[in-house]
Amino acid sequence: MSRMGDVLAGFHAAWEFESDSVLIRYERGIRTPKLLQALGERRVPLSAVSAVTLAPGKRGTVVLRAELRPGADPLLEAADGQLKEGCDPYRLVLPAERETLAEYYADELAAQLTETGPADRFLVPAPEPPRSFKAYDGKASFDGRTVSFRWFWTGASSAKWKAGDQSFAISELSGVEWRSPEVFEGHLRLLRRGETGPAQVDHDPAAVVFGLGYGPVHESLPFAAAVLAAVRQCGPAPVAAVPRRDPADIAERIRHLGELHQAGLVTDEEFSVKKAELLAEL
Q: SHOCT domain: from which residue to which, for each copy (predicted)?
């Protein structure tokens, strides 16, 4: 591959090629999308990349893009295809006169790729907590272990006020649902294990609603990605073993049930159903 430490600079970002990864550093200029500025940099292992493409861009540019494997990056998983093209963190735009150089790096990088298909775990580091942002109806905070929502009296629904401020341990969650504030009715909803929240997110105490100037992409999406990565790292909730009942105790309860049945206090159907339930506990 290209020499370790080689750098390809484009508009808004520069790619530094290393032996097993690409370090992408984003500029902090006023023309750089706020999401990229907020990310600062991303180290992408080559094992997370499935392909590299080079295509003509707009107004005399070429675009070098790394296509990541599904499931490799918590940011892209949380975004779920909602990012605008200009906010794509793996898209490097260069002047057209640098096409030959870009093609060289694209070929060198592609030659090193060996992995395809979905990744079984996140390979790109998630944005680090602690994180917080202001939604329309409350403030969301994440310290790495717990997600907290503190409601604003000016925006929260009566249902959320009634439920009160909320805290959710990562172990309680199965994932996150992020809807971009740049589309109608954006929100961040925490998905709880074994629970389904109200259909309306403004009534769900496990969700915050976005609005004009509230929950911007560069704040809410890294937040969602950090929570999602923590949830995946936590793994599935442990399944508690169901203790087996003492057979003697079960036999005694069935005997007592039989006495109630003979006395006419339990119907034939009730006796059969309850006996089956007791036997299932053995």
A: 252-279
Evaluate whether 156 touches 141 at the Cβ level (below 8 Å).
Answer: no
The structure tokens 């090629």 sit at 17
**Half-sphere exposure for 137 (CA within 13 Å, toward CB):** 25
CA-closest candidate to residue 50, choices 78, 71, 29, 23:
71
Range of the domain at 148: 131-234
- In this structure, are 86 and 149 located in the same domain? no
**Mean predicted lDDT score pLDDT of the chain:** 89
Contacts of 177 (CB under 8 A, 6+ apart): 187, 188, 189, 191, 207
Nearest-angstrom CA–CA distance, 256 and 275 = 11
What is the number of domains present in the chain?
Answer: 3
> How many angstroms separate the most distant Cα atoms in the chain?
96
User: Is 242 a domain residue?
Assistant: no
Q: Is 123 a domain residue?
A: no
- Which bin fits 175, alpha (ψ -120 to 50), beta or left (φ > 0)? left
Q: Indicate the pLDDT class of residue 260, thresholds 50, 70 and 90.
A: low
> For residues 54 and 109, is the Cβ–Cβ distance under 8 A?
no
